[in-house]
Design goal:
It is a single chain. The chain has 115 residues and is mainly α. It has one domain: Helix Hairpins, CATH 1.10.287.3610. The chain has 4 helices and no strands. α1 crosses α2, α2 runs antiparallel to α3 and α2 packs parallel to α4. The longest helix has 33 residues. The termini are far apart.
Length: 115
């Protein structure tokens, strides 16, 4: 079982690196704290909390994957290559799509509570 538990250690190191070194991860975490604070103030239902938790977890996981892709591309080549740029742009695009969808869902949840 030792290698199994060691994999958790490596995963936690990756998460720690993402939080400490990535500007966008910091932004997402601040936004998540704002959403959680808003959820506490507005009294979200259990289903709304589940939705928010999935969105926050998905956003953080996707940002970590984006960072991993960027690091891998940077490791493979120092030169400009159109495919390397596409890989980075596609990964960033995936984060943006999820962020927009998350914002829309947050509006669907929160706007009726504010009105």
């Amino acid at each position: 079982m030792h290698p199994f538990f060691k994999s958790f250690h490596y995963a936690l190191k990756g998460i720690q690196h993402g939080f400490s070194a990535e500007r966008n991860m910091k932004f997402h975490c601040i936004a998540a704290l704002g959403v959680i604070f808003g959820g506490v103030l507005t009294g979200l239902s259990k289903l709304e909390w589940l939705t928010i938790i999935i969105l926050i977890g998905g956003m953080i996981a996707l940002e970590l994957m984006n960072t991993a892709i960027e690091r891998t591309v940077d490791l493979v080549t120092d030169d400009f290559h159109p495919l390397a740029k596409q890989a980075k742009d596609l990964a960033s695009g995936a984060v943006l799509v999820f962020a927009i969808c998350s914002a829309i869902i947050a509006m669907i949840i929160f706007i009726p509570k504010w009105l």
